[in-house]
Amino acid sequence: MSELWDLSQLITPSRSTLYHLDLAGIDTPYVESLTGHITRLAESHSVYPGVLMEREIAPLLAKQYAGANLHTIYKHTCALNGTGVMASDLAQALSSLTAHNKLHLLTLLPWSEVFPSRALLRSTRAWCPKCYEEQRTNHCEIYEPLLWTLNLVGVCPIHQQVLCSICPHCNQPNLPLSWRARVGHCSKCGKWLGNLSPTPSKDNELSETELEWLIWSANAVGELIAVAPGLAVKVPKERVANGISNCVKLFSEGNVAEFARLIQSPKNTVWLWCNGKNLPQLDALVKLCFRLRSRSLNCSPKM
């Protein structure tokens, strides 16, 4: 041949160690959780999440809580979706392995300055059977929304039914992330958790007012999750204090005691919120918004 290829200038694109999976539900209220993403990632590599954590992720964390394998953090796996160092370190470790730069959006890290971690996340897994069944029937990606991991969220806002937390097959709860976890399946017995039939649960015991509150709160939290990708920086905690102070001026002409009675909270607690001394927990903040909404609609449902 008269011409030869010059390969000296060939640049090979960098490769990630693990698959670069699409982030399910990104930019919506139903973005997947980080623990759910790990479960999907492990399944795509045909290994258990525990194996993936032990062999690939734990060595990068280099922290005492990581230990040798997932067994050492079972009781704390809910924190992997939260606002603290465990979520931050895991997101960074996975980013280096998958070449993703948005994994923090699968956690509550964008709100770490304004959401106190206490009682923020449930310690066991929760799910909507109808969501799972519809995902499978419609041949969609089966995944676990971050929304389901929050303590405050008790119902599926799409199907308006109480989330399940006990496997209907083996009557056992599941951890947010376990060694043999598999999305849409029980991590104890391995059976499918989807079901389009009415699920026997406490949703039949909810009053209309209680159900209204649960649906409204789930949608409100979903809106916060959906806007996270658009935040240039983390929301500062001062924003919460200023917002509550403005509400006091608007709804009670600056009278903290009157505002406290309006939202059914202790006066000292509200004063601490207004002055930035304490941050309201997520459930208290959402209840505050719900009661002010009810006030503007000339109704005041009790929760």
Report the count of strand segments.
2
Task: Briefly note the structural class of the backbone.
Answer: mainly alpha
Written as H for each helix and E for each strand, in order along the chain, the element string is: HHHHEEHHHHH
**Computed CA radius of gyration, to the nearest angstrom:** 22 Å
First-residue to last-residue Cα separation: 83 Å
The proportion of residues forming helix, as a percent range, comes to 25-40%
State the domain count: 2
pLDDT < 50 runs, ≥5 residues: 297-303
Mean pLDDT: 87
Description:
The structure is a single chain. The protein has helices spanning 34-44, 49-61, 85-98, 129-137, 208-227, 237-252, 256-263, 267-274, 282-296; strands spanning 155-156, 161-162. Helix 5 (208-227) packs across helix 9 and helix 7 (256-263) packs across helix 8 (267-274). The chain contains nine helices and two strands, in the order H-H-H-H-E-E-H-H-H-H-H. The longest helix is centred in the C-terminal third of the chain and has 20 residues, at 208-227. The protein is 38% helix and 1% strand. The protein is globular. The chain is mainly alpha-helical. The protein folds into two domains: 21-235, no CATH class; 236-296, Orthogonal Bundle (434 Repressor (Amino-terminal Domain)), CATH 1.10.260. A two-stranded antiparallel sheet has the order 1-2.
